[in-house]
């Protein structure tokens, strides 16, 4: 039986008197290792807030987020990254004055580099290894030809692909993508779909928030649906498309199986 890598356990988040996530009982769901979970819901359902709670940007009012036995709800964001969690944001975050390659290298894990290794010239071999790894992930997302371009010159879709590359270079155990197709043209969407399918096939654990249901329901193997910050439904894409509660609240009759 596949073990759960990520567990959201009765999590609530309140801003003042507003219950943004969890309602009275708290939000609970789990992500087994190696699975591809889609997180969907109408605007204001609490998807991005849930992502922020998982990645440590926000701390829950109650409940816990557990990654491989570690309670992320009491960990620093830097520690969460070291535990193997990678996350992109709705608005791409990059250094516009740096090149594509430099942006990916900045996102790489520099664990193991010490003052002594720098003095001995170890940084040179480390830099060569980082450049090679950055080149590999940029090739994977189709940005090889832009590798020396300044990021400020990239299109919105290319920035999305760069965000994915900046996470992949760290080789995360679980990758959270927040609206990865926003502003991405159909050809790049198809490329992104192939990348995610390949990552899933390699055993990577993925959690993706997405408004583009046609894109997501074709490639995810399980789906969690939120409404007003609470769990409305969960299941396979086929089960979700046939769920009358989801159809009534979100999908509409055109999505019924």
UniProtKB/TrEMBL annotation:
InterPro entries per UniProt: AAA+_ATPase, ABC_AA/LPS_Transport, ABC_transporter-like_ATP-bd, ABC_transporter-like_CS, BCA_ABC_TP_C, P-loop_NTPase
Domain ABC transporter: from-to ranges: 6-253
CC per GO annotation: plasma membrane
Keywords associated with the record: ATP-binding, Nucleotide-binding, Transport
Any one biological process term the GO annotation gives: D-alanine transmembrane transport
Gene Ontology MF terms: ATP binding; ATP hydrolysis activity; L-isoleucine transmembrane transporter activity; L-phenylalanine transmembrane transporter activity; L-valine transmembrane transporter activity
One Pfam family it belongs to: BCA_ABC_TP_C
SMART domains associated with the record: AAA (SM00382)
Name by which UniProt lists this protein: Branched-chain amino acid transport system ATP-binding protein/branched-chain amino acid transport system permease protein/neutral amino acid transport system ATP-binding protein
């Amino acid at each position: 039986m596949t073990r759960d890598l990520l567990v959201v356990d009765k999590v609530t988040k309140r801003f003042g008197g507003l219950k943004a996530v969890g309602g009275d009982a708290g939000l609970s769901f789990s992500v087994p290792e190696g699975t591809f979970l889609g997180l969907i819901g109408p605007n204001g359902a609490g998807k991005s807030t849930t992502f922020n709670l998982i990645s440590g940007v926000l701390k829950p009012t109650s409940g816990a987020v557990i990654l491989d036995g570690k309670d992320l709800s009491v960990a620093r964001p830097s520690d969460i990254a070291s535990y193997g969690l990678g996350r992109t944001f709705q608005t791409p975050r990059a250094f516009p004055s740096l090149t594509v390659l430099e942006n990916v290298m900045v996102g790489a894990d520099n664990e193991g580099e010490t003052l002594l290794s720098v003095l001995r010239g170890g940084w040179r071999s480390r830099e060569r290894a980082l450049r090679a790894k950055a080149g590999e992930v940029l090739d994977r997302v189709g940005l090889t030809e832009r590798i020396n371009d300044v990021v400020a010159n990239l299109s919105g879709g290319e920035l999305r692909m760069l965000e994915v590359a900046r996470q992949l270079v760290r080789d995360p155990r679980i990758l959270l993508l927040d609206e990865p197709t926003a502003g991405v043209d159909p050809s790049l969407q198809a490329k992104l779909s192939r990348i995610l399918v390949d990552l899933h096939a390699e055993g990577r654990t993925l959690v993706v928030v997405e408004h583009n249901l046609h894109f997501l329901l074709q490639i995810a193997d399980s789906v969690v649906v939120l409404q007003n910050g609470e769990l409305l439904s969960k299941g396979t894409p086929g089960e979700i498309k046939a769920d009358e509660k989801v159809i009534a609240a979100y999908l509409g009759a055109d999505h019924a199986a």
